[in-house]
């Protein structure tokens, strides 16, 4: 940190803020391109770039996203194509990288490698969509409750309390039981239906903190209307904790989907999902552990990547941890 | 309240507004806060007027109601717990308290703007100062992003921020305290309002910067011919800038006077005490005078004159009767322009 900064600012949040070119000649400024001013998000991004954890998780996630989007690029085998005669439960050939028999075959003679690849889409889709829905619903309701207070807060907070009281997995099971055909969007809806409460709580409390800030009063005194104050001044200052919770929760939703599918309540057979394969594999785990190991491993890896990313984002956004 | 008529009789010192309508007139304003322990009466019948080009300094200790009055004028009081049981705030003759919320919002920022004490916390940390300055133009005047940015740079030049062009994209934490306050001033000035309320604009700054910021404020005020309400507890800040002073105590104006008159001959024991408690070079080595006692608890304001428990001149009448704002005259009865004192014994105080 340059000494100039120390002299100019006393705020600890500005620790790695670079001293601005105070009275420099204009020509000198372009020479200091790297000293460009940074916002809170700019600071967070700077911090993230210097964390190996962030890079490891991002590379993993990008890879997983590509697999989810284009599974055909990674295997030429149809994951639903079972060949009972030749491949029934044959063991993995770890030398045959990217080949259909890399991870072996399951009870129905289907390539486990192809199924792991094609199962990625369902898991990622569930994770990302549930998180998006939950952030939208919970974030909006939490923001309204926190900003307006009074009876609006009372009503929303009580609804949150009611939903919070329902056990998450049990509740989704009950919801899912009402559907005969359980496609991906049904699982997404069921998880989002019960999952938004924690986000609403986090958002509400951070909005309450942000709305008391002097700059909100100042904006009001300078004639800003309610929507402008809410979305321009309150939200950007209150959204960080929500982002952190949402990123970490994303991994949780993926494992929740797998749990539901394992229990036979989540996605069902024509859809390919790690949870279904884990469920199938668990039946023959004694003699053929590979049928369970590979889908479970992928699941753990994905959840791990998301949670690691969430941790990195949290560390970057929370100045107190710096 | 009998004080209304008394203040209304007091002639304006200078810069009297077009026609008869002053730029801003506060009439018998009361503000109270409903707390768990009871009703805190923060403002109890304040009257003052400000005209274009005029600076009114509102002086008082913490808790005297000076900031609350300003917040009531701006309409940024938290209500509840705040409440305005009576009074009027007239902007060019129109009562802002009975206006629709929308009409009021249009006045804020465009006609009346405010400068806050702590510039760092009054600027949004996640937006660049250029964006925040430009926001004024984009929202109120519908300018494009580019034009708004150009205007923001112009404003930053105006308030003498060096290298405005290079620094327009910087964030509030990258500026020093004095520069931040200049940005606050620029923001308040953006739409060239008629009236600026500065709530302790220099309190958070160090002494050398204070003078610069005050000079800048005074200069801009002259240039734009704005009215200025300067809220402060610093007698030194006021002397050079203000035209007239209103001294507040326990939510009431206890003395009004043109600025130099007040320093020369205070007509209220409280003002006198304040002036005597300023350290002076010629009294080096002596004990510093201090007004005895504490400011009153707003939940239990003493009966009669609120200052009576601390007043060296207090008599029985002070404990029973609330003194109205008496017009202050010379010994021979000649009127003193703009002077008033809410003391039963103002004659004794000013003429000794």
From TrEMBL, chain A:
Taxonomy, superkingdom: Bacteria
InterPro entries documented for this protein: BP-dependent_transpt_permease (IPR050366), MetI-like (IPR000515), MetI-like_sf (IPR035906), OppC_N (IPR025966)
Domain ABC transmembrane type-1: 120-310
GO biological process: transmembrane transport
Record has Transmembrane as a keyword: yes
Entry GO CC: plasma membrane
Annotated compartments: Cell membrane
Annotated membrane topology: Multi-pass membrane protein
Keywords, alphabetical: Cell membrane, Membrane, Transmembrane, Transmembrane helix, Transport
Gene3D superfamilies: MetI-like
Sequence intervals crossing the membrane: 54-74, 124-147, 159-179, 185-203, 238-256, 292-313
Family matches, as PANTHER family: ABC TRANSPORTER PERMEASE PROTEIN (PTHR43386:SF6), OLIGOPEPTIDE TRANSPORT SYSTEM PERMEASE PROTEIN APPC (PTHR43386)
Family as reported in the entry's similarity comment: Belongs to the binding-protein-dependent transport system permease family.
Protein name, entry field: Nickel ABC transporter, permease subunit NikC
Organism: Streptomyces viridochromogenes (strain DSM 40736 / JCM 4977 / BCRC 1201 / Tue 494)
Automatic annotation (TrEMBL), chain B:
Keyword Calcium among UniProt keywords: no
A Pfam match: oligo_HPY
CDD domains reported for this sequence: ABC_NikE_OppD_transporters
Any one GO cellular component localisation term in the record: plasma membrane
Molecular function terms, GO-annotated: ATP binding; ATP hydrolysis activity
Upper classification of the organism: Bacteria, Bacillati, Actinomycetota, Actinomycetes, Kitasatosporales
Keyword tags: ATP-binding, Cell membrane, Membrane, Nucleotide-binding, Transport
A single GO BP: peptide transport
UniProt subcellular location: Cell membrane
Membrane topology: Peripheral membrane protein
Domain ABC transporter: 24-275
Superkingdom, natural source: Bacteria
Entry keyword annotation includes Plastid: no
Protein name: D-methionine ABC transporter, ATP-binding protein
Family: Belongs to the ABC transporter superfamily.
Source organism: Streptomyces viridochromogenes (strain DSM 40736 / JCM 4977 / BCRC 1201 / Tue 494)
């Amino acid at each position: 940190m340059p000494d100039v900064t120390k002299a100019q600012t006393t705020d600890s949040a500005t620790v790695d803020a670079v001293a601005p070119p105070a009275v420099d000649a204009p020509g000198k400024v372009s020479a200091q391109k790297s000293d460009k001013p940074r916002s809170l998000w700019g600071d967070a991004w700077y911090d993230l770039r210097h964390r190996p954890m962030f890079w490891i998780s991002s590379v993993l996630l990008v890879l997983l996203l590509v697999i989810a989007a284009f599974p055909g690029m990674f295997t030429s085998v149809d994951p639903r194509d079972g060949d009972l005669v030749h491949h029934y439960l044959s063991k993995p050939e770890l030398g045959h990288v990217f080949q259909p028999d890399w991870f072996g075959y399951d009870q129905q003679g289907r390539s486990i490698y192809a199924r792991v690849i094609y199962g990625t889409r369902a898991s990622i889709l569930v994770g990302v969509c549930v998180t998006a829905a939950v952030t939208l619903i919970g974030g909006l309701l939490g923001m309204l409750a926190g900003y307006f207070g009074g009876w609006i807060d009372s009503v929303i907070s009580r609804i949150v309390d009611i939903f919070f009281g329902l056990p998450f997995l049990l509740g989704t099971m009950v919801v899912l039981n009402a559907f005969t055909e359980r496609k991906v969007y049904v699982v997404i809806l069921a998880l989002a239906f019960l999952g938004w409460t924690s986000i609403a709580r986090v958002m509400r409390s951070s909005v309450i903190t942000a709305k008391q800030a002097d700059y909100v009063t100042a904006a009001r005194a300078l004639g800003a209307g309610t929507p402008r104050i809410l979305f321009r001044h309150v939200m950007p200052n209150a959204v960080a904790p929500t982002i952190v919770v949402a990123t970490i929760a994303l991994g949780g939703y993926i494992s929740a989907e797998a749990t539901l599918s394992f229990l036979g309540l989540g996605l069902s057979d024509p859809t390919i999902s790690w949870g279904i394969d884990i469920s199938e594999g668990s039946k023959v785990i004694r003699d053929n552990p590979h049928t369970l190991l590979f889908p479970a491993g992928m699941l753990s890896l994905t959840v791990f990547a998301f949670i690691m990313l969430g941790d990195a984002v949290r560390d970057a956004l929370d100045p107190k941890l710096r | 309240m009998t004080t209304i008529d008394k203040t209304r009789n007091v002639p304006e010192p200078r810069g009297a507004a077009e026609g008869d309508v002053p730029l801003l007139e506060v009439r018998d304003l009361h503000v109270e806060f409903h707390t768990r322990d009871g009703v805190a009466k923060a403002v109890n019948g304040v009257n003052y007027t400000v005209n274009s080009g005029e600076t009114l300094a509102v002086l008082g200790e913490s808790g005297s109601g000076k900031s609350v009055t300003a917040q009531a004028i701006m309409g940024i009081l938290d209500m509840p717990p705040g409440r305005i049981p009576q009074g009027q705030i007239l902007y060019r003759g129109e009562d802002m308290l009975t206006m629709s919320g929308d009409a009021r919002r249009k006045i804020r920022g465009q006609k009346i703007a405010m400068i806050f004490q702590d510039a760092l916390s009054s600027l949004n940390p996640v937006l660049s100062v250029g964006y925040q300055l430009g926001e004024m133009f984009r929202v109120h005047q519908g300018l494009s992003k580019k034009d708004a940015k150009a205007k923001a740079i112009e404003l930053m030049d105006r308030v003498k921020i060096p290298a405005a062009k290079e620094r327009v994209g910087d964030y509030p934490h990258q500026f020093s305290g004095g520069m931040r306050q200049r940005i606050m001033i620029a923001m308040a000035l953006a739409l060239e309002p008629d009236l600026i309320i500065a709530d302790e604009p220099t309190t958070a700054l160090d002494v050398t910067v204070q003078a610069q910021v005050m000079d800048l404020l005074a200069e801009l005020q002259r240039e734009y011919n704005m009215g200025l309400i300067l809220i402060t507890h610093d007698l030194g800040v006021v002397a050079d800038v203000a035209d007239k002073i209103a001294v507040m105590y326990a939510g009431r104006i206890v003395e009004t006077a043109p600025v130099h008159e007040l320093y020369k001959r205070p007509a209220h024991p409280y003002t006198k005490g304040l002036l005597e408690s300023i350290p002076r070079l010629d009294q080096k080595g002596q004990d510093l005078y201090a007004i005895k006692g504490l400011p009153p608890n707003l939940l239990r304001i003493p009966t009669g004159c609120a200052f009576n428990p601390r007043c060296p001149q207090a008599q029985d009448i002070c404990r029973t009767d609330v003194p109205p704002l008496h017009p202050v005259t010379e010994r021979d009865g000649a009127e003193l322009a703009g002077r008033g004192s809410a003391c039963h014994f103002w004659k004794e105080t000013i003429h000794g």
